[in-house]
């Protein structure tokens, strides 16, 4: 594949222009069609991607590994324990050495605030091949791209003026990363969506991400508002994306404190009553895994508004597009 994006890192959507992101999305739509027709897409024949996972994954690992296979290449699955990363391999060594073995490095490092994105940037500084973010403490750009693809599909590519709501929701696992909500508020305004961010006061996002979201909204001529009431957020929404995240900004990496704070807000759940506040044809999204019975009721996640399976499927097509364009 002849691509001007060859060699580019994909660490956050904000590093790519809107035109570049649209190019990736167009290719993702084309790849989705070819996948459905069973047409081969050997754009990365004999190429190798190294996937370093410092956290668990179902969708990100399997969509990325399947993408490499279906593009004609291969992906290696690497963990800290199964490599010498746990015994001292530095970001510099990883960047330089893996660059001599293959054609791309992908990393998931999302558990601790202030760690993952810095690590990826350090690997990218030394690597001579593209570095792809599989979710950090800052952004989850592959998830965000799949979410945009899903919204385009569901609303026939007519996004401008639609109300997109990212809301905090209670979950028993209290320390989910900030990557998805931050990635969403930064990227969605660029695609013409009016963004509402809803959360209890202690669950604010990083000020740098808020600043980028406000700037992107201003440049795109769309709204960006923050509310502390889940009902108010859901009112007249076209798209609702209720999910949990940790009170990292408030409690830093103190997980016990995050748990204590989250327990105050158990009523922040996506249920049928709240869904009825949104527009009739509103869609319910979640990057998964969801904490059923806490973040969302079964009736909503399995109900007529839910698009979670299409959203999860689009992880495959969008990561294929990013890998084909950059590698
Ligand atoms: N949405 C997402 O990134 O899922 P995994 O944690 O399973 O990769």
Structure characterization notes:
There is one protein chain. Helices cover 41% and strands 14% of the residues. α2 packs across α13 (308-326) and α3 packs across α4 (116-126). The protein has 327 residues and is of the alpha/beta class. The model has no long low-confidence stretch (mean pLDDT 97). The longest helix is centred in the N-terminal third of the chain and has 20 residues, at 18-37. β5, α6 (179-187) and β6 form a beta-alpha-beta unit. It contains 13 helices and 9 strands. It folds into 2 domains: 13-140 and 314-326, Rossmann fold (3-Layer(aba) Sandwich); 143-311, Rossmann fold (3-Layer(aba) Sandwich). It has helices at residues 18-37, 59-70, 91-101, 116-126, 141-154, 179-187, 207-220, 230-234, 248-251, 255-262, 272-275, 298-301, 308-326; strands at 48-53, 74-79, 104-109, 131-136, 163-168, 194-198, 224-227, 239-243, 283-284. The strands form 2 sheets. A 5-stranded parallel β-sheet has the order 7-6-5-8-9. A 4-stranded parallel β-sheet has the order 2-1-3-4, sandwiched between helices. It is globular, with a radius of gyration of 19 Å. The site of phosphoric acid mono(formamide)ester (CP) has 8 residues, from α2. Keywords: Transferase. Pfam families: OTCace, OTCace_N. GO terms for molecular function: amino acid binding; ornithine carbamoyltransferase activity. Residues 183-325 form the Aspartate/ornithine carbamoyltransferase Asp/Orn-binding domain. Its EC number is 2.1.3.3.
């Amino acid at each position: 594949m002849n691509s001007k994006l060859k060699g580019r890192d994909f660490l956050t959507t904000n590093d790519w222009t809107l035109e570049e992101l649209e190019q990736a999305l167009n290719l993702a739509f084309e790849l989705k069609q070819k996948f459905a027709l069973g047409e081969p897409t050997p754009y990365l024949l004999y190429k190798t991607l190294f996937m370093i996972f410092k956290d668990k994954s179902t969708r990100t690992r399997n969509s990325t590994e399947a993408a490499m296979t279906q593009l004609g290449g291969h992906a290696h699955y690497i963990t800290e324990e199964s490599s010498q990363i746990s015994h001292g391999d530095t970001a510099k060594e990883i960047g330089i050495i893996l660059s001599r073995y293959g054609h791309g490095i992908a990393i998931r490092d999302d558990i601790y605030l202030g760690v993952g994105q810095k690590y990826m940037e350090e690997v990218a500084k030394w690597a001579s091949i593209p570095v792809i973010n599989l979710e950090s403490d800052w952004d989850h750009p592959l998830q965000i791209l799949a979410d945009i693809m899903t919204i385009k599909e569901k609303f026939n590519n007519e996004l401008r003026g639609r109300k997109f709501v990212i809301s905090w929701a209670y979950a028993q696992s209290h320390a989910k990363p900030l990557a998805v909500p931050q990635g969403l508020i930064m990227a969605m305004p660029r695609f013409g969506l009016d963004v509402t961010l809803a959360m209890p006061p202690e669950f604010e996002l990083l000020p740098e991400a808020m600043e980028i979201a406000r700037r992107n909204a201003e440049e795109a001529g769309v709204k960006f508002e923050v509310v502390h009431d889940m009902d108010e957020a859901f009112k007249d929404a076209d798209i609702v994306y209720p999910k949990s995240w940790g009170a990292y900004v408030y409690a830093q990496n103190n997980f016990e404190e995050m748990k204590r704070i989250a327990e105050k807000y158990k009523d922040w759940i996506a249920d049928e009553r709240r869904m009825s506040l949104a527009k009739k044809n509103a869609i319910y999204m979640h990057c998964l895994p969801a904490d059923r019975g806490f973040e969302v009721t079964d009736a909503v996640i399995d109900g007529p508004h839910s698009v979670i399976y299409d959203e999860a499927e689009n992880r495959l097509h969008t990561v294929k597009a990013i890998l084909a364009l950059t590698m």
